Amino acid sequence: MEYSNPKIPEGINTSKTNPLKEFAVLTAGVIFIAIAALIILVVLVDFFADKIPFDWEKEIPIERVLGNKEKSLLPDYINTLSQKIISNMQLPDDMDITVHYVNDDTVNAFATLGGNIVIYRGLLEKLSYEDELAAVIAHEIAHIKYRHPILGASHGLAVGLVLSIISSSSDDVISGLLGNTSMITVMKFSRNYEYQADKEAIELLVKLYGHAGGALGLFDIFKAGDSASKPVEFLNTHPLTENRILQVNSIITEKQLNNKLEMKVFPEEFVSWLSVEKK
Amino acid sequence: MIDLIILIALLALGYGFGQYAEKKHYTSIRKRELILRSVPVVASKIPPQGKPNYDSQLVSGSVVISVDYFKRFVAGLRGLFGGRITSYETLLDRARREAILRVKREAKDLGAEIVFNIKLETASIHKGRGNGIGSVEVLAYGTALIPN
Description:
Mean pLDDT of chain B: 88
Radius of gyration of chain B: 19 Å
Largest sheet of chain B: 3 strands, antiparallel
CATH class of chain B: Alpha Beta
Shape of chain A: elongated
Strand content of chain B: 25-35%
Strand order of the largest sheet of chain B: 1-3-2
Helix content of chain B: 40-55%
Strand content of chain A: 5-15%
Strand order of the largest sheet of chain A: 1-2-4-3
Structural class of chain A: mainly alpha
Oligomer: heterodimer
Number of domains of chain B: 1
Number of strands of chain A: 4
Distance between the termini of chain B: 69 Å
Radius of gyration of chain A: 26 Å
Number of helices of chain B: 3
CATH topology of chain B: Translation Initiation Factor IF3
């Protein structure tokens, strides 16, 4: 047997494919599958979430939905106004709303599970007219009317489920990549909720005051508070204030509303209560 | 968003350095393979016949190599779909050739003519860390025949 010592040919054990190409194909595949799974789940969730009985939401302990925020006593004025708004919004019989007040500088109000609404002192201070306060309360009640908190929570759950399935079967970094992609889809849903709630709030304002000036006033306050850098709507849970103003104006034109801007001022006792609260 | 930017930066860094290191290693492997061709390495278990006046000695070479972040990421994606993990092929190819080169180097330093009964063993170094570390150790060993 003759032994020879040939030169070993190159490239037998390795492939010539460019790793960048493989990366592109695989990443596109993963994102496609994740988005497809997400869309299917979200469609299912959308279909079923608002069929969850409201009673089930009410059974969630309040600490679970509100955290450990220190709630203060709601002034009679806001309570009376809220009751007036609630009775004008055609809520289902089993849906009861609880308005909470938090003595804090945060300029915000939100609606959450179990029909709970939270208004911060910081927001109250920015308001000048009852119409604007009514717009805030009606907007938040509209979220609850359309079951947005439970829809949002279910969306979050669906997204979390898809992400955990993918991340458990692959590297952590992949789930990081997907987390960002899917959040954008969720935000889009959340922006649609805002437009829907705005629309409902305008209808309420018209019913109570005969015009939608409160909504415009409220958005002017938001606009002044927006940061100087122009935010990108596509990356936010809330629509741009400008776009919300556009919607209000289009509703006003569409319904040929009487757009006189005589708004109701706050009663004396509320203004003095607020100044005492601040100290 | 910041996570995504960090991820892309790590991938770019991994790709750049990984490709550079791989290219450099292959160049060095080819050069040394040419130099050490005079020491043949054979897998046969039986020593070449008709060479009684030889001493024999164990020679071994081991190497540990890691893939870069980029290739590990691609391999992770491959783990979802299945198929050839092409991004790990060069890693193992380089490790095996480097290990054999170290065997040859040792044999040549001993003045050996041939190495027979060469064996290769591969171990992955990621115990307990899942896909966190994409490193392998390749150990090559054989019997060198040194004329006395």
